[in-house]
Amino acid sequence: MSTWKDNLRTIDPYVPGEQPDLPDMIKLNTNENPYPPSPDVRKVLDAYPEAELRLYPDPNSTKLVQAIATYNKVNDNQVFVGVGSDDVLAIAFMTFFNSKKPILFPDITYSFYDVWAELFQIPYEQIPLDENFEMICSDYYKENGGVVIANPNAPTGICQGVEALEDVILHNQDVVVIIDEAYVDFSNMSARTLIDKYDNVLIVQTYSKSRSLAGMRIGHAMGNPELIAAMNDVRFSYNSYPMTRLSVEIGAAAIEDTQYFEQMRQKVIATREWTKKELTRLGFSFGDSMTNFIFATHERVPAQVIFDKLREKHIFVRHFSSPRIENYLRISIGTDEEMKTFIEETEKIISEYQ
Known about the structure:
Distance between the termini: 57 Å
Structural class: alpha/beta
Number of helices: 11
Order of helices and strands: EHHEHEHEEHEHEEHHHEEHEEEH
Oligomer: single chain
Strand order of the largest sheet: 2-8-7-6-5-3-4
């Protein structure tokens, strides 16, 4: 009998949000931006010489790295780019978390962290958030192999102040501390300046949310040159051409169009704040989300009921079955029209619930 199955690495995989394809749907379950990317992206697509696709891309993604460095006022050798922030984070896990001590991250956070830890056989400990889903800094004052903090956090939407993050860093200067800022553009609270003060801090960001390019898979990290060089060594050890020629051109164009970025960012924030008021009126409670989603629970109607009833109407939100958050819904912010429809249909569900 074949025994090849004895050598498989088995793991419970990360489960992404449902990706329905219905003409009448309102898709509020994967935190995508409801608005198109910068018009400069269209210019790149229209002018791009398709004959160049026969050539391998620049392994250093120089144009994109330079654009990101200029925007963030750092040096080129402080920037690492990858195929979405998931790719960047995975490489960071492989690069920096190789001790026998457990890495630390919250018990309610981005659910890919424990998957990577299992995949790469990294010991880990999940630190409980408090009853308000806030991080307790002192819980990270212990020996570990590294720290990962999503800020603002997902799926809670809560943003810790830079002072809290620095407190954790000050107590963990012998390991790498990763600050995952996938949603930071909706909060105005980036910890980017901390990489100027601490050589063990890595800031990770993405184009998928605020820059409307989830379909292109562009992410980046910023840190001191030694951290970035180490990540590049790992990256080049298994994939020497991670970014396509087209993604480099589009990524550079998108980050350089600051005016459009700011306009779209403010539109999402304004709609988020309107939605908070409406959800409160309907009897929901939630933390003060600083993201492009709201993590809410209703005072009377179970989250599963609301989720199922909305799904019947082709309105998709996210429901998690994990302990502590099984009665919450994560609601992405869509257009004004989409959110008004969502509120109207949710109000009907609540009024009809017995």
